[in-house]
């Protein structure tokens, strides 16, 4: 519904979404590059867009912030043009 409204409005809209809160288990080990990429890909499909302006980590365990592979995956997604900002 949101994606359709954005496409039909013709207005300049910034798209922001979050990922991670529903990872099961909601533990450090549940946060993998593959899982987070899946969140982004699913959001792109649902929103009917090619790029998300802002992706946000939603309530990750603190340890996630110290895992370079997580942020490396977001950098890859930026290089692919799928997200603009984290």
Topology:
Blueprint: H1 2-9, E1 16-19, H2 33-47, E2 52-57, H3 68-79, E3 83-85
Parallel strand pairs: 1-2, 2-3
Helix pairs in contact: 2-3
The rough form would be described as elongated
Q: Main beta sheet, described?
A: 3 strands, parallel
Helix content: 40-55%
Q: How many structural units, i.e. domains?
A: 1
- Kindly report how far apart the N and C termini lie: 24 Å
* Total count of strands: 3
Helix run count: 3
Assembly category: single chain
Strand line-up in the sheet with most strands: 1-2-3
Contiguous uncertain segments of 5+ residues: none
Rg over CA atoms: 13 Å
> What letter string, H or E per element, gives the SSE order?
HEHEHE
Strand content: 15-25%
Q: Output the structural class.
A: alpha/beta
- State mean pLDDT (0 to 100 scale): 88
């Amino acid at each position: 519904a949101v994606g359709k409204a954005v496409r039909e409005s013709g207005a300049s809209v910034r798209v922001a979404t979050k990922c991670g809160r529903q990872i099961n288990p909601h533990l450090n080990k549940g946060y993998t590059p593959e899982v987070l990429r899946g969140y982004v890909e699913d959001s792109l499909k649902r929103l009917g867009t090619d790029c998300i302006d802002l992706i946000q980590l939603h309530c990750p365990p603190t340890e996630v912030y110290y895992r370079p592979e997580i942020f490396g995956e977001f950098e890859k997604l930026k290089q692919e043009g799928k997200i603009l900002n984290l």
